[in-house]
Design a protein that fits this description.
- The chain is α/β, with parallel strands linked by helices.
- The chain folds into 2 domains: 6-123 and 178-216 and 228-265, no CATH class; 278-412, no CATH class.
- Helices cover 39% and strands 13% of the residues.
- It has a 10-stranded mixed sheet with strand order 5-4-1-2-3-8-7-6-9-12, sandwiched between helices. A two-stranded antiparallel sheet has the order 10-11.
- The longest helix is centred in the middle third of the chain and has 15 residues, at 201-215.
- Belongs to the MurL family.
- Keywords: Cell cycle, Cell division, Cell shape, Cell wall biogenesis/degradation, Isomerase, Peptidoglycan synthesis.
- Residues 3-272 form the MurL N-terminal domain.
- Residues 294-402 form the MurL C-terminal domain.
- Cell wall formation. Catalyzes epimerization of the terminal L-glutamate in UDP-N-acetyl-alpha-D-muramoyl-L-alanyl-L-glutamate.
């Protein structure tokens, strides 16, 4: 597709049904996305402006089809929300640019529309938090922390599959789901040569969640993104490329700034686990056995239409989560969770070498830092039930294991975060990780 710019011809929202439609133009082709929130209970004064931000975030799905050299916003946005828009495209599409060798995307020309007037008032959402559920160990720790602190979270997901529904069903907390539908013509366009690749989907789902919370009188949206999400995979043309950019702390800060500047929403969005390492979270998850039969972090499983297999056992995510959980769950329990012993499979060794930083760069997956993988390896090397397994023994012979101080730092839990004090107390109430 050869077009000059992505444009924003308009959007609609039906307050009686809760259905929003967002239109995007690539030349003469107009594509429409639909988000079905369900009928709102209330119409918060900030809702319309949150839908503005969602309109922009969702546009990345359509931009990538043609990757034009210009984005013409057209719609009025607060001037202080523009740094978020710029980062959303130039950094949120960094992996897409790298994989498709489109260097100009890193400096994409973004043409703003007229600046919007400041919001009429500043609101701090009150009410039970809306906790996003992804089906993995991270969101389970958040769910349990909020529930045990008496904060009565409402569990949330966009397009939940059977895995997410099964995780939510273990908890006694209420749920709220939203249906997001991409324009069906996108498949045909991809089949005929349109670009494809990774987009900042967490930014989209985060704004869907903020809008949903406003429609039902709920409190802040609570995510479960950890410290390692902020760490890039590689550097390309002098720029950091991060598969998890929209889960990282800079993206969280940008979105919070945009919500305040454009919608007048304060403390409406944060990640509860931001200051924790993946291993720290895995240690906390080990406290909760009720989810063992449903927890899933495998992206291959999520791509299944019926999601009947919870772990593929061969992807970077499966390898890392198995590694992260192993020091804390015990071998018998972990094999029941996964249904296979990944550490007994010699074909996994090249993938584990990547995770340890021994070859290539960190995989383009939602996995922890190289340093975390090495800490996990050191812990396993000191445990009788794991130290002689094929993978652990091979890697221990190849890798430089961390010091005591480096291990201790992994579980300190004091990384940079934007969590309000009341919610930090909920996390601390879970107790020490080890």
């Amino acid at each position: 597709m050869n077009v000059e710019a992505l444009r924003f011809p308009g959007r609609e929202f039906d307050p009686s049904t809760g259905v929003a439609r967002f239109h995007y133009a690539l030349g003469d082709l107009v594509l429409t996305e639909t988000v079905d929130f369900g009928p709102p209970s209330v119409l918060h004064p900030a809702l319309d402006r949150v839908l503005d931000l969602l309109y922009v975030a969702a546009s990345t799905s359509y931009y990538k089809l043609a990757a034009p050299k210009r984005v013409e916003l057209g719609l009025p946005l607060a001037e202080k929300a523009l740094p978020w828009v710029t980062a959303l495209y130039r950094e949120g599409l960094g992996e897409f640019a790298y994989q498709n060798q489109l260097a100009y995307v890193l400096d994409l020309d973004i043409v703003p529309g007229p600046f919007a007037e400041p919001p009429a008032a500043v609101h701090e959402p009150a009410g039970p938090p809306l906790a996003a559920v992804g089906g993995g160990k991270d969101s389970i720790v958040t769910m349990e922390a909020l529930q045990r602190a008496g904060l009565d979270p409402v569990l949330f997901a966009v397009n939940p599959n059977p895995i997410i529904r099964a995780v939510c069903a273990v908890s006694p907390q209420p749920t709220r789901f939203v249906r997001r539908t991409l324009d069906p013509r996108m498949r045909e366009l991809n089949a005929t040569g349109a670009y494809n690749g990774h987009i900042p989907v967490t930014a989209i789902n985060s704004l869907v969640a903020v809008a949903a919370s406003l429609m039902h009188g709920l409190g802040p949206v609570v995510m479960s993104n950890e410290a390692s999400a902020s760490v890039p995979n590689l550097n390309w043309l002098g720029r950091d490329i991060n598969h998890q950019w929209s889960k990282g702390l800079p993206a969280e800060a940008h979105l919070r700034d945009a919500l305040l500047a454009h919608a007048g929403l304060q403390e409406a969005y944060f990640s509860l686990l931001r200051g924790l390492s993946e291993l720290h979270i895995a240690a906390l998850f080990a406290k909760f056995t009720a989810y063992d039969a449903v927890v899933t972090s495998c992206n291959a499983a999520f791509k299944q239409r019926d999601a009947t297999e919870r772990w593929c056992g061969h992807c970077p995510k499966c390898r890392f989560v198995f590694l992260a959980m192993a020091p804390f769950t015990g071998r018998e329990r972990l094999l029941k969770i996964f249904g296979t012993d990944i550490f007994a499979d010699e074909t996994q060794l090249p993938g584990y070498r990547e995770l340890m930083g021994l070859t290539a760069h960190k995989p383009f997956e939602c996995v922890g830092e190289i340093e975390e993988s090495l800490v996990a390896l050191r812990l396993l090397a000191g445990q009788d039930e794991w130290k002689d397994t094929l993978i652990v023994s091979a890697l221990t012979a190849e890798a430089a294991l961390p010091t005591d101080a480096e291990v201790e730092a992994t579980f300190r839990g004091d990384g940079p975060n934007l969590v309000p004090p009341a919610y930090l107390a909920a996390l601390e109430a879970l107790g020490a990780a080890r």
